[in-house]
Amino acid sequence: MKDPNNTRNTSPRRGSPLWIFFAACIALGAAAGAAALAGLGRADLDALLANPVFWILGAFIVVGEMRPIIAPGLTETSGATTSTTFSIAALLYAGLPVAAVLQAAAAVTCGIFRGRSPHRIAFNAAQYTLSLGASALVLQAFGIHPSPTSPWVPGGRDLPVIALVGIAYFVCNVTLVGSAIALHERISLVRALRWDLPYQILVHLALLGLAPLMVIAMDRSAAFVPLIVLPFIAVYLNASVSVRREHQALHDGLTGLPNRKLLITRTEEAIAQLGGAPGGSPLRRGEAGGARRAGLFLLDLDRFKEVNDTLGHPTGDRLLQLVAHRLTHSVRPGDLVARLGGDEFAVLLPTVRDEAAAREVAARLRAALSEPVRLDGVSFDLAGSVGIALYPDHAPDFELLLQRADVAMYHAKGSRTGVEVYSPDRDRNSPARLGLLGDLRRALDRGELELRYQPKIALRDGRLVGMEALLRWRHPERGVLAPDEFLPVAAQTYLMRAITHEVVDMALAQAEAWWREGLTVQVAINVSGRDLLDADLAETIAEGLIARDLPAAALQLEITERVLTGEPASGSGTVAALTDLGVALSLDDFGTGYSSLVRLKRLPIEEVKIDSSFVRRLTGSPDDAVIVRSVVELVGTLGLRSVAEGVEDAQTAALLREMGCDAAQGWHFARPLDAVRATAYLRRGIHTDGLPGDDGVFTGPPAPRLA
């Protein structure tokens, strides 16, 4: 079976060690072949052409070279070529010129048929010629000089000589091929030979052992020669069936790439080569050849689903085959590309120097993918996100490497950087985060989640226009935690829905308590994009409002710009239901997304909150001042209320008032207050100086009046 990861057809760079090695071998092979042919006389040629044995032998050498016996676990480049038996038989029977010519012709024919590069064809012909030349020197050392006119038929006493001939051929052939592989894949010669040396010894022992039997058959009658081939045919067919079954079990049927099973095997082999062991401890820096590493990449196509949905699955399949081809031709020699399923691929770097070198390979992969593609008359661009995990830096075994490469890949996709290396800080599956998730689950049952309330103040007259409810977790060991410290952990789990419903319930309960006191303040809560996918959210809010006899105006939902301007279809249904219910919507963090003027006008919102990142730089950055002024004017033109977040000083508040901003919130007015302090804030109405926030810091300027 053809190995899709085989890159040996790639021409070596001129002047490189591999190029020098090829050039030297080809030159020596050509010289050896020319010297041998120089000793071939006219009589030898006539005898060659007249004897049908040589024609049959030549045909067998070509067929043997074209159809190697590939055992399970091997490829066409490492399988056993039965041409060895026939070329050694030709050497013993008729001498080096005949054997070298027949074997070289077979190598050239096979190379052309299989589409091999010229340098590879020339090297194969040369290494066969040199190996046969080494065997011919052994024969000459024992005074044996076979030729077409004077063939040599060995007897029983010649077995030691034949054994030395076979050893010379095997050592020369394996050394030349192993050296080429070692230089090509940049590994040591010992490692290149160690991969399948026992198998090669066993196979060559069998193939070389049949050569003298072939000579005896040739000497008796040409009719006996085909009979020797029958055992080869039986072995070939049996091996082909076994290899086909193994290939199906270890390779992807669509692309021909290795699958997850073979990737696991190769990764474990790479780890073992670096001195580790599957399931064992990671290497310490400085071990395994100067802290060499293994790298595992996970690559996911960014827009494959669009191609599948638009052009159909057959086109999508052809695209995956094209991607497989590009990937295998973009990695280094010796690296392995595998398909894990769908549009997800993995790349194994058995050895990589460091993180920077791994990033270089990943960048090359993305560059290869980015070339335009044309399928079914449609041109489009491809892109992929790559996550990198290194052994032993990030994980000690395959499963953990793959998991952490997956974490890095999703971070690369989410941040749109294209390539990311695993970082424990971004791993939501780290033990610390998993522990926090367990604590959060218990926090819901124990009522450890609380709300803090921060006033929104009208800048023109100091009226209170609402309270934003901010979630806090009173952790029994770590104290009060802000949302950024625990919500990202819950965002991709079922807990997010439970937390949102808990926040809605707490906010409505507090609003009910205030409204019963005559403190008719609107309470705003934040909802995420995941919340909008919850079809029950609108129903839950409606039931809560009815149960507490509250109008819809008592509640406001703050939704970030990125979510509200890009929500999926399933989320837009929830937004429509909330709008029909009469619940006010606020566009939060405006300026951080990509809203167009037309889209902003169509959104079902009554308020736009300018992101604090612009507001905090308002007095010191003219550019930010221009942005904020433009947003305020835009929002006013659309008939919406503008609210500035993160106002921390009187100068910023004054500048916003001058710009015409409707309202603001921030530490300048009040820090987030717990329910008790927030209620006191509302009750005092006109006089709230000296009221501390939830962190014990006193609030600032004049008290607002209730709207």
Automatic annotation (TrEMBL):
Domain GGDEF: 292-424
Keywords, ordered alphabetically: Membrane, Transmembrane, Transmembrane helix
Residues annotated as domain EAL: 433-686
Pfam families cross-referenced by the UniProt entry: EAL, GGDEF
Top-level division of the source organism's lineage: Bacteria
SUPFAM superfamilies: EAL domain-like, Nucleotide cyclase
Bilayer-spanning residue ranges: 20-40, 52-70, 90-113, 125-142, 162-183, 195-217
PANTHER family xrefs: BIOFILM ARCHITECTURE MAINTENANCE PROTEIN MBAA, DIGUANYLATE CYCLASE DGCP
Name of the featured protein: Bifunctional diguanylate cyclase/phosphodiesterase
